[in-house]
What does this fold into?
Amino acid sequence: MAKLSLREFQEELARKLSDTSGATGTRALLGLQSGAELWLIDLAESGEILPVPALTPVPLATGWLRGVANVRGVLYAVSDFSAFQGNAPTAVTGDARLLLPHAKFGCNSALLVSRVLGLRALEDFEPADAAPDPRPWVSAQFSDTQGRLWRRFDPRKLYTDARFLDVAA
It folds into this structure.
């Protein structure tokens, strides 16, 4: 059996899930919680999900840049997604996770989120009756069957946002 990296395995798994769900018209989404907000990210747009490793603080950086993580020899700047958006900082508990960017984005910027909520199908949601969200990385808003508001995350818009790229304190 050929040796396969974890990243390649996860990308292949995401592709297979997308292919399978595409046959029925369903898109596979990953549910995330960042602070009190619920988010959906397309599996094809996400990278690896990891427990939070040891973070090395970065001096003279903004408060939402939590540090640098070494993931199998690759350094990632770890941004607290909740704190970046002006919400409470994410507590690094056993549920907290790092969302690594998909390789196609060509950046090493991981997001710290409160927890991962599993796979979701877009068909389980309906467009939310909410005011438009001014954040460019919110591509849509949905309501679930419990009436909770979910935001669809467009990572490309976040990774190119001037404020997100400016980490100096």
